[in-house]
Amino acid sequence: MTIRVAPLTAADVGEALTVQRAAYVTEAQRYTQPFIPPLVETVEQFRADLAVAVGAWSGTRLVGSVRGRVDGTRMEIARFSVAPDQQGTGVGRALLAAVEAAAPPEVDTFWLITGADSHDNQRLYRKAGYEPSGDHVDKVGIRLVVMAKPRRA
Ligand SMILES: CC(C)(COP(=O)(O)OP(=O)(O)OC[C@H]1O[C@@H](n2cnc3c(N)ncnc32)[C@H](O)[C@@H]1OP(=O)(O)O)[C@@H](O)C(=O)NCCC(=O)NCCS
């Protein structure tokens, strides 16, 4: 089935939060931490975070989404999620490229946070040009890696 990538709107938020929750369960299990931010986000918080937001559809089914959070010239890639049964088929790569393309013109750097033990994710990000730029332990004790890359003209 062909994947269609398009802006995510308020009408999509219910479905997108459902997919996000399903996708992030494996990360929660990896770190034995059920209260990671993507799993405790509310519909209202999600609706308030649609300035740069992209979804992927297979037919009429929403199979993934990702958001960009702009702060000055930097944009964080956040809440990157693909439905479990659709993972590993290229949806994530398409979403990542689309959210980068949707960044406003003032953005010159993309960055993101991922778990230090999430090696599959880090491989995907490295292939997309991201490099580790720091690490820290969050308030629930998970070791995180910051990755970043410059925007190319
Ligand atoms: C991370 C995620 C959005 C990637 O989307 P995807 O559609 O599975 O990714 P793609 O199929 O486009 O790309 C596959 C690449 O992603 C990586 N990857 C990450 N998680 C994966 C998974 N569960 N299954 C397969 N590949 C995965 C691999 O490096 C793979 O590269 P490879 O082909 O060299 O093995 C998706 O797997 C997901 O929702 N994971 C759970 C939530 C999460 O961890 N989000 C990111 C937090 S930083």
From TrEMBL:
Coiled coil: none annotated. One of its GO terms (molecular function) is acyltransferase activity, transferring groups other than amino-acyl groups. The keyword Acyltransferase applies. Residues 3-152 form the N-acetyltransferase domain. Keywords: Acyltransferase, Transferase. It holds the Pfam family Acetyltransf_10. Gene3D superfamilies: 3.40.630.30. The keyword Repeat does not apply. This is Acetyltransferase (GNAT) family protein. It comes from Actinokineospora auranticolor.
